[in-house]
Design goal:
heterodimer, A: 88 residues, 3 helices, B: 637 residues, mainly alpha, Sodium/glucose cotransporter, 4 strands, globular
């Protein structure tokens, strides 16, 4: 069992966790919404036959979402290990 | 193998080997059926074998997972590794609407259908960063448990139960409709009877083993549904492009479709974004697109049957990892769906349109015949005799199929693809088994979420906290049966288009639960009254607009004209009000902000959380250490 965090350690831990959350939330918002506003323009570009705007909604953003989940897992695990609060 | 059981320690140590054997066995079964077909066994028998064999396997897992332990019944003993919980979540998540309906929506909607693809994946990012690890650390049995513990007791718990039941019940009815459609089609029985046959398939999985049984069945169901979804798409891609990677190769299909749209004078191009039927930019189409994505994503992060899957992992770390696995397994199906739509559309434009009726491929006749009626070639005056789908369509009778003489049902895109690709009937049976697995697994998760909320939150926590284990499990199982029967009865008498029901469920859950969950974890000073206000405001605003826009459209148009433009759309046999032109499946755009505004406003003026409550929140924010429940939250389990 890990040692109990002091008040300052807890604040530092939650500060790091929160900024990771906000970073990923911003990227989620960009790839979930913002980029698709430009779909009519992006559709002018074709890659392997895919109009780019269509591709981003059908595949591109999905790949980013998976990557964001993997990133959150590894980055948060690293924070947990640094503060010695992992539960494994 | 005395004492051996599914979910036991021997089972958990050998998961990889067991499910590899299972997958091999299933593929072997498909090959055997292929041989049976080749030696002349009739198609109907193959359909029976597929449906009864797969349901039989799920039942076997369900019986082997029977349990008399409360924690196994509610959270699978918290012993499900991240990877397998990811697969179980995948099939819990992907319903008949995803498996059969989505490719059809993409075929008809083109770009606008992609809102479902984005909305049903992006929400997992929110689950990962905002919810899953903290709910796992909290470590109780249900989502209303969290509301009870965080917002000071029974009022918050009861409201959460109310939202959970409203959202999950609407959703489970849609799933049983899905099971009924597939079963009636492949067994040749009536829809109402098929709903109850499906019900048996659902109950045998969950009744004896609760969450433990549902978990290990869902893993088995995921394996079947993903194999069934990928094989026809891979073969189709190989035939059309020569490369068996549909997800990469449908780009060339999109390009050919774009060229054919020019010659066929299609006004609404397949991949054009935010256009109306005339092919012009439409702001209403754009706002509908984004409203739907928002409701589906936020709904994902609020649906209790999904969140409760993250209560079952052995650790906080694994809960987090398992969200990533879940999304990966879901992604495998969702990034294939647009390929189905593109290849089917290309086949129609290239192989059917401007083809003499006499030369149409065999699959048009077999999927269009009375009884199936999923395709229609409506050229001749009496075409409706051969193709019931042609009712109301008048062809010009020139013996050649024009674009406006062709009809296809959304479900045909996935169901008929094996035959379009010239695959043997056994693959069609495989696809049906996959669709059934998708619908059954989601229905199981939803029914369990409803029954657990009733038995654990309402009965045990609020009515009889002294009930012993045996009594609690008896009550749980009895409630599961009752809820399942009511759902099957409702489905049998409804039997309609299911996509709007599913979307409502997302809007309801998003409006009622999202603000309470997020602010409960991320805003420490948020007090009891503000949490209760958030859930109540979100839920009632959502239900109010859902009910009035659907059933009292003209009244809404009059009473809310000050809001802005309100259109009346004739749909589902009613005059439905579209506020600002937004489809009422996205009614969460009113409920979600209402919940946040109410919770933040009340939070500013009402008493903040007590010190004990703030210590409780600190304790669930950190993976290690004990959870310090605040007083007033009731007994721990």
């Amino acid at each position: 069992m890990a040692a109990k965090l002091t008040q300052e350690q807890m604040q530092a831990y939650w500060g790091r966790t929160s900024s990771l959350m906000w970073t990923i939330l911003a990227l989620w918002f960009f790839f979930g919404f913002v980029i698709h506003f430009f779909a009519p323009t992006l559709n002018g570009i074709r890659i392997f036959g895919f109009p780019l705007g269509y591709y981003m909604a059908a595949q591109g953003s999905l790949i980013v979402f998976v990557a964001l989940c993997v990133w959150n897992t590894t980055a948060q695990n690293a924070i947990d290990d640094e503060f010695g609060v992992s539960d494994e | 193998m005395a004492g051996y059981s599914v979910g036991g320690s021997g089972f958990l140590q050998n998961l990889g080997r067991i499910y590899a054997l299972y997958t091999g066995g299933f593929l072997g079964f498909v090959v055997v059926l292929g041989i049976l077909e080749w030696i002349g066994v009739p198609d109907r028998w193959l359909g029976y074998l597929f449906i009864f064999m797969t349901i039989g396997v799920y039942a076997l897992i369900g019986v082997l997972s029977r349990t008399a332990e409360v924690s196994e019944y509610y959270v699978a003993g918290r012993s499900v590794p991240a990877f397998y919980n990811g697969m179980a979540t995948g099939s819990d998540w992907m319903s008949a609407a995803s498996f059969i309906g989505m490719a059809g929506s993409l075929y008809f909607g083109g770009y606008s259908g992609l809102a479902f693809i984005l909305g049903w994946t992006g929400g997992y990012v929110l689950v990962s960063i905002l919810m899953a690890p903290y709910l796992r650390k909290f470590g109780q049995f249900t989502v209303p448990d969290f509301f009870g513990a965080r917002y000071g007791g029974h009022v918050a718990r009861m409201l959460a139960v109310l939202v959970l039941i409203a959202a999950s019940f609407v959703y489970v009815v849609a799933q049983i409709v899905g099971v009924g459609i597939i079963t009636s089609r492949f067994l040749g029985i009536s829809f109402q009877v098929a709903c109850f046959v499906g019900l048996i398939g659902i109950l045998v999985c969950s009744l004896l083993g609760g969450m433990k049984a549902v978990t290990w069945t869902q893993v088995a169901q995921y394996i079947i549904l993903i194999i069934a979804y990928l094989i026809p798409a891979i073969v189709m891609s190989f035939q059309v492009t020569g490369v068996p990677i549909p997800q990469l190769m449908y780009g060339t299909a999109l390009e050919k479709i774009a060229a054919l749209e020019q010659t066929l004078k299609v006004t609404q191009p397949h991949s054009a974004a935010f256009v109306n039927a005339q092919g012009q930019f439409s702001a209403v189409a754009m706002w509908n697109y984004f409203a739907l994505i928002l409701c589906l994503m936020v709904g994902t992060a609020s649906l209790p049957h999904i969140l409760m899957r993250y209560f079952t992992t052995p650790s906080v770390r694994q809960a987090r990892e398992s969200v990533a696995w879940s999304l990966f397994f879901i992604f495998l199906l969702y990034f294939t769906a647009p390929a189905y739509a593109a290849f089917a559309k290309l086949e129609v434009y290239q192989g059917l349109i401007n083809t003499p009726i006499a030369n149409l491929p065999e699959w048009v006749k077999s999927w269009g015949r009375p009884g199936l009626a999923l395709v229609g070639a409506c050229d001749a005056a009496n075409a409706v005799q051969q193709f019931p789908l042609c009712r109301g369509v008048t062809g010009n009778g020139d013996g050649i199929l024009q674009l406006n003489e062709f009809r296809i049902h959304a479900d045909a895109i996935v169901l008929a693809t094996p035959e379009i690709a010239g695959l043997p009937y056994v693959i069609s049976g495989l696809v049906a088994a996959g669709g059934l697995a998708a619908a059954l697994s989601t229905a199981d998760g939803l029914l369990l979420a409803i029954a657990n909320a009733l038995s654990h939150d309402v009965y045990y926590k609020m009515i009889d906290p002294n009930a012993d284990t045996k009594r609690r499990l008896v009550i749980s199982r009895a409630l599961l049966m009752v809820v399942a029967l009511i759902a099957a009865y409702t489905a049998g008498s409804l039997g309609a288009d299911i996509l709007f029901l599913v979307s409502w469920a997302f809007s309801i859950a998003a409006s009622g639960l999202f603000a309470g969950l997020v602010l409960g974890i991320w805003w420490k000073r948020c007090g009891n009254a503000s949490g209760v206000a958030g859930v109540a405001a979100g839920f009632f605003v959502c239900m109010f607009f859902l009910y009035t826009t659907e059933f009292h459209g003209p009244w809404v148009k009059q009473a809310f004209s000050w809001l802005g433009d309100i259109q009346i759309v004739k749909i589902r046999g009613r005059d439905v009000a579209y506020i600002w032109g937004i489809n009422n499946i996205s009614v969460g755009i009113f409920g979600i902000p209402a919940a946040f505004i109410a919770q933040l406003l009340v939070g500013r003026f009402a008493a903040p959380a007590t010190n004990e409550m703030q210590e409780f929140i600190d304790s669930i924010r950190v993976p290690s250490g004990e959870v310090k429940l605040a007083p007033g939250a009731g007994p721990a389990h």
